[in-house]
Amino acid sequence: MIKFFLMVNKQGQTRLSKYYENVEIHQRTTLEADVIKKCISRTKDQCCFVEYKDFKLVYRQYAALFIVVGIDDTEEKCKYMCSHSLNEQASHSLNEQALR
Hints:
alpha+beta; about 35% strand; globular
């Protein structure tokens, strides 16, 4: 199950966040800071799945934007679907930009 969805720029500023479970505001800021550090510090050669606490992060970088989805540790199908969906969205966005 998806726990949260984040869109973050390269500077580490959260541009969009959506939580699917109740998380208090001060916990959100701590969670987002930790998640952002984990994803930004990785190289492009590394896998886009990261273990974090009791869930997994699926992330993708598009230009200066990181899209991060936090999912349950047990959801193997969800990891594939998130990764596949992020790839489709990126190719769609890039194709639209190329046409402009």
